[in-house]
Predict the structure.
Amino acid sequence: MGYLKSEDQQLILDFYFRCGDEEDISRGRDLIASNPEAARLYANLEDTLTELDTLKYEPCPENLAELTVARLKLAASARLVGTSKLETLLKQEQDNLDYHPAPVPALSAGVRFWRPAFEVLATAAAVVLVAGILFPSFGAMRDRSRQVVCADHLRQIGQAMAAFGSDHNGRIGETLVKSGSPWWKIGYQGPEIHSNTRYVWQLVKDGYAKGSVFVCGGDSEGIPVQYNAAQMAELEDFPLRRNISYSFILLCDDNANSLTRQSRRIIAGDLNPLFRQVPFQPSVYHQLNEFERIQLDEQLRQMMSANHRHKGQSVLYSDGSVEFITTRIVNGDDIFTVLGVDVYRGMETPCNPDDIFLVP
């Protein structure tokens, strides 16, 4: 038997990926068992694609097939840069005077165990070409998938806030940070309200939302709360900083009343990039470190949330809608900073009700 026919190669792929009908899969299995060339191709597939098994599964967009076909058509019509060089290289191999086809081993008449060098190059080039076309798309689709999961989590948080508000005279929270007090001590369980996430923790503690929705799909360091109801009842805040990867509008005694107004405004979003590295305690029993002073510079003024690789952030509006934005300036306001403040010590509060300040 000579080189594998295209239909034989398709049978091997059907068997490897377990796609197609049962008859084709069975034929592929029998072909691999009886044909050394087929067995070699199957082994190469396993060696090449096994590493993909370590990739984290994430939902694929519904238009994955359309996007893939479109990119393949574009590549074919445009004849991607490098194709002509590849053809030249292959022709040089074929025209090489020193080239001699590998002899057919006597062990199996008609079966080639080694292919000519130009055919190996062609196969490798095809793999590289397809990888170059598809893998950038896969990266973009992973980003999009994380955005979809993130938006769903924020919507659930918005629904929980709305349900809480309907039970508490329209207020989205009842634990207010006092102006001039720390707002960054996530995990602090003392009587003082020194964390802006205490009013959000109420949503989890009182059963309005699951703790898992407070971890963004794009936050590789996030850990969902894994406490039972009895344990959560003893806590006044999220146990760990890593249990929450979103920032929420600073709810303090200066702006609590203004948030009940019927206006569409941002009330939450992906984690504020300025304060991502503020210290957090590893357990509820350890003391917190002091907040390290942060001086704004041009880089910090332009940085987006790390949850989505600094490409933008999802934001939750007071009407429950969610949007992914690629800027931090909304209606002339930087949602991650306080107007007119360049140095942060962890106790800043906006004086203007329209100055949105999303903090941990």
Notes: Residues 51-60, 104-114, 282-286 have pLDDT under 50 and may be disordered. Residues 117-167 form the longest helix (51 residues). The CA atoms of residues 158 and 320 lie 5 Å apart.
